[in-house]
Every structure is written in C-alpha cells, then in structure tokens.
Design brief:
Elements (H helix, E strand, L loop, with lengths): L3 E3 L5 E4 L4 H11 L3 H9 L5 H9 L14 H13 L3 E5 L4 H16 L3 E5 L12 H9 L4 E4 L7 H9 L3 E5 L13 E3 L15 H16 L7 H20 L6 H16 L3 H9 L10 H17 L3 H9 L3 H36 L8 E5 L7 H12 L3 E5 L8 E6 L6 H7 L6 E4 L3 E6 L4 H14 L1 H7 L1 E4 L1 E2 L7 H8 L13 E8 L4 E3 L5 E8 L2 E7 L6 H6 L4 E12 L2 E13 L7
The protein binds manganese (II) ion.
C-alpha cells in the first residue's frame, strides 16, 4: 500500500511499497539482513548479485581508464608532451570539483617530472570556463599544451583562440554537451557522442582521475602502474571523492566506489593539504569519515575560496607538499568560509524581507529578488535555501554597485523543474545565461528585471505541477523507535556512502512524544535539540535548520508522527543512535509496534 500524508514541511509523505516476499527472497539470496534487503529493493536493486556488488563497491569495479571516451588519446598526448619536456598548464574551474580535479592532474604531471603549472579563473572577474585572455597569457609564458578540467566543453570560441595561438588543447569535462563540440586535440567526456560509456555521471574530478590514471599507465609502460604512482592515485581517489560529493552527481556505480574508497584514503593517507583541511574542520580525530563530512565541511570551505575569487589558493592547498604551508592555507580558507557564512546569513535575511514585502509566496510561481549589496559569489547558496523553503524556482540578482554593468544572477530550482529550459524560454530578456535543470547563472540589464520577472513567473507557472509532484518525502520504511538499535544502524551503514542518488534512508515512526520541549542550538540558533519517547524507548534527535518549529512543537501535547534519518554517533568511542528530524505531524495513526 502506498499512503500519502502531508507533514509540517508541506511535503507529501510517500511510503515505499513493502513487498514482504521479495524482501525475504533477496535477504536469503544475498545473505543480508531484512532491513538492508528492504532498502536495496527501494533503490531498485532486486537480484542477489547486484546487491552484493552494490554493498561491496570494490575498487576493482572502476573501469579501465582507457574505456572513458577520449581518455586514451588525452593520455597519449600528455605523455608525449611530458617526454618532450613541453610546458603544460592545467586549466581548472573555481569550484570544489574543479579544484580537486585540477589538483589530481597537476599532482600527477608533477610526479611524472613534467614542467606543469595550473590556472584557475577568478570567479568574480573572469567567470566560468576557458577565457581567450588567459589562454593568450599562458601561451606568452611558453605553455604549449593546455588541459582543461571541469570546463571547456562549451568553449568553442576559446578553442579556436587556442588553435590560433598554436596551443594544443585537451578538454576534459562532464558538463552538458552543446550542439557543437570545441575543436580540440582531444576531448574527454563520459557522454561524448559516438561512444557508449556505461556510466554517464562522473564529475570533473572523476574524469580528471581517469585521465591521470591512464597517463600513469603510459608512464609505467603497463596497465599496472608503478607503486609510487599507485600511491598517488589512491590519494587522488580521496580528492575525487570530494569533487564527486561537492558536485552532487549520483553516488552510484563508479561514483559510489570513488567516494567509498576516497573516504578511506582521505583518512588513511591524506595529502598534506587534505590533512590540514580535515584538521581545521575538526575531523582529523573522527573515527570514520562520512560523505556528509565532505558535503558539509570540506566542500563548502574549498568553494568559499572560489566564491571570493581565491580558488588558486584552494588548488595550492590541495597540491602543496609542505605541511606548514598547507596549515596556513587551510586556516585562511577556513576564515573565508566564516565570511561566506555571515554574508549568506545577511543576504538570506534581506531576501526573506523582500519575499514578505513584495511577493505573495502563495501565488507567484517563482521568486526573482534583487539587491545592490549582495555578494555575487554567495547568492546561489541563498537561492538554493529559498528554493528549498518555498518549493519553487528562485533567482537572486546581485545588482552592480554603480548600476553601470548588468546584474549577475544565480538561479536554483526544486526537483522536477527545468531551470535551463525556463531561462531559454525567457532568454530575450537576458544578456547571457548557462547551467542545467537545478542550477543556473545569468546576467541581465537592470531595466529588464521587471519584464523578465513577469515572463519567468509565467513559465514557472506552467512547470508548477511537476515541481509540486516532486515535493514529497520518499519514506523507506515505517516502524517503532525500539527497532533502532546500534546493530540495525550498522546494517543500514552498509549502504553508505549516502548522497544524491543514494540518500540516507528516511524512516517514519508514529505515535511518538517529546520528552521535553525542543531546545534551540547552534551558534545562530538555527537547529533544534530534541528527545523523543515511545513506550520504553527514548532517543535523542536533532533538527538541522528546524528552529522555526520550536514553538509549535513545544505547544503540542498530542502524539506525533515523525520522519527522520537515523544516524549512528561514534563520539569518543561511545556509540549511540540519534535521529535527524526531517518532518512531523500530529499523529492520526495508531501507534506503531
Ligand atoms: Mn563539475
């Protein structure tokens, strides 16, 4: 039976079908516990062999790098350039995926003795992708081969510039393919036309790792790479894991393997920069790193450097071999992340004020907000938060301080809405735009904003149904709190790493009460500390970003139905089960159990 209800988050609760016969079959066939079988079936894994390969996620499950479209050609060319002693530049992107990918290729080239340098554009001044100016500057320095990371697939003009400059250009990227490809010496991309690569969702760093691996095979004159290079490639898997989680690509197939093993590599043998970064995040003593640590601690710090136009420091951090320098850079990046947090808070407040003053959140199908002192490196984060909160596309525009240049905008949309198509449909009002279904960037003349808003809201209205249909919580299973033993949680952890495409399981319990009123916690009081009781079982809970619910929860005497993610806390060797509250409602069902 599939039952739908609505909780306080305004999302519908959709319970996964419970197919008892199928669960028992998989449980026996694969020799796994019932809860793991149930969760795997909910993820579309039905047969014992797929279940085992999913759970094992062996490193040997990574495909030979030469199978990745263009990787063999790129590796041959890079190998030849290294042998010839030519100057090589790695041209990266300023986000965490681009930085980690750049660090992988640069680190690899240096270990092969190459004369290699890197270039990462300034996000605020140059923007995303290859730039003709930068290519000219590289050529003037004697660079003769440029290899892009996490960018370049749409840089047709710039590829022509590179050709005119006599630069050999290798593009490695994973972004959407346009109708036309750049004219480059080689293009490495998991979805390159004419190839059939079985896994389409490697990120920029994943693609860079494959190229580095293929290059190491050539340098070792064997499919088995030399031990020293193998050691570096394992460290590079740690870097690729950060890029993979940061870029929110599905954690399935090769991405799942990269993150599973990358987490272990980051912990066991981190590069000096990663060690320093883990240290400033307070993670160096953690018993077991999780994908969430990459998503919420490492990636935001690297991205903060990019947001302030300092991505080159991020790459330096990830490639330096000098621990004191790594420490210094990690601390500086940590500070930039704090500035980012405070800017984000103040823009969020101002944007919310605009939502209340200017818009009828119930009627406008999209929110288009603008501010003159908004930092363009941070507006995307705020747009993301608002899109989540209001379940509709949100565009934040940073107006030029002098009003002389076009406003720079960041757009985010909830699942089910195609932002890129919506911008394409309203492109007449825009100077430029780019991106994909869930996130995009744009530039617009100030005088066009009102007309654009009206047009965009109209397009959003048409896409509303799809967005609303997607606004649901997919609950894996329902059961009493007493089921949540440390043992069950260990079973569930076998499905880790969790993230996009393989979310941490969402469970529900009905007829639960609060042992005490919720407490606001966190340095900005945004979170809630909770304690749930059901019969003999008491479990601690936390509601991240749920402070809005404090009064209502405190005033509620009736039993609650709750939706949550169970997590296992390994704090100083003491294991405890904790709930992360996701949604709740006043109970109308009989108590479970
Ligand atoms: Mn990327």
């Amino acid at each position: 039976m599939s039952l739908t209800l609505q909780g306080r988050s305004n999302k519908r609760w959709r319970f996964a079908a419970h197919d008892a016969a199928r669960i028992v079959q998989l449980e026996r066939g694969a020799g796994i516990s019932s809860i793991v079988a149930q969760l795997l079936i909910g993820r579309g894994v039905y047969d014992p062999q797929s279940a085992r390969s999913f759970l094992e996620a062996r490193l040997s499950g990574l495909r030979d790098p030469d199978l990745l479209p263009g990787a063999a050609e790129a590796a041959e060319r890079l190998h030849a350039a290294v042998q010839a002693g030519r100057k090589i530049a790695v041209y990266g992107d300023y986000d965490a995926d681009g930085m980690t990918g750049t660090a992988i290729l640069l680190g690899c080239l240096k270990r092969l003795g190459a004369d290699a340098s890197y270039y990462v554009p300034n996000r605020l001044e140059e923007g995303y992708g290859l730039s003709s100016e930068a290519l000219k500057a590289l050529a003037a320095k004697g660079v003769s081969l440029v290899v892009s990371v996490d960018c370049g697939i749409a840089s047709l003009q710039e590829a022509a510039t590179a050709r005119a400059l006599g630069l050999e250009l290798i593009v490695t990227d994973h972004h959407e393919l346009a109708d036309q490809l750049p004219e480059a010496a080689a293009i490495v991309h998991p979805r390159l036309p004419g190839w059939e690569y079985p896994f389409k969702w490697l990120c920029g760093a994943g693609v860079a790792l494959k190229v580095a691996w293929a290059l190491c095979q050539r340098a070792s004159a064997s499919k088995r790479v030399r031990p020293a290079l193998r050691e570096f490639l394992l460290q590079a898997v740690g870097l690729a894991a950060v890029g993979t989680v940061a870029d929110v690509v599905p954690l399935l197939d090769e991405n799942r393997i990269l993150v599973r093993h990358g987490l272990a590599c980051l912990q066991a043998q981190p590069l000096p920069g990663m060690a320093a970064l883990l240290e400033v995040c307070g993670l160096s003593q953690k018993a077991r790193l999780e994908s969430e640590d990459l998503a919420f601690a490492l990636a935001p710090r690297l991205n903060a450097a990019g947001r302030f136009g300092q991505a080159q420091l991020g790459v330096e951090l990830l490639t330096t071999e000098v621990p004191p320098r790594a420490r210094q850079l990690a601390e500086y990046i940590h500070e930039m992340n704090r500035s980012r947090e405070s800017l984000e808070r103040s823009i969020l407040l101002a944007a919310q004020k605009q939502v209340h003053q200017q818009f009828d959140a119930g009627h406008d199908a999209a929110l288009v907000l603008a501010g003159r002192d908004w930092h363009q490196g941070v507006i995307g984060l705020v747009a993301g938060r608002l899109a989540e909160k209001y379940h509709r596309p949100v565009i934040l525009l940073a107006l030029d301080p002098l009003g002389a240049r076009p406003a720079v905008g960041s757009a985010r949309a909830p699942a089910g809405f195609d932002l890129f198509s919506a911008l394409k449909a309203t492109a007449d009002y825009l100077v430029t735009f780019g991106g994909h279904a869930a996130a995009a960037g744009l530039k617009i003349e100030e005088g066009q904003i009102d007309a654009f808003r009206a047009a965009f809201c109209e397009v959003a209205e048409q896409g509303r149904q799809a967005t609303e249909a997607a606004a649901e919580l997919r609950i894996d299973a329902e059961g009493p709190l007493c089921q949540l033993t440390a043992d069950t949680l260990h079973q569930i952890e076998q499905l880790a790493p969790f993230g996009h495409g393989n979310p941490r399981p969402l469970l529900a319990s009905t007829g639960v009460q609060l042992a005490q009123p919720p407490r606001r916690i966190g340095h900005d009081q945004r979170h809630l500390a909770l304690r749930f009781v059901q019969q003999q079982t008491t479990i601690r809970g936390v509601g991240f970003g749920c402070a809005d619910w404090a009064e209502e929860l405190a005033a509620t005497q009736a039993p609650l139905d709750i939706v949550y993610r169970p997590v296992l806390n390994d704090f100083r060797g003491r294991r405890s089960v904790e709930l992360q509250l996701v949604d709740w409602r006043i109970s109308t069902l009989r108590q479970s159990g």
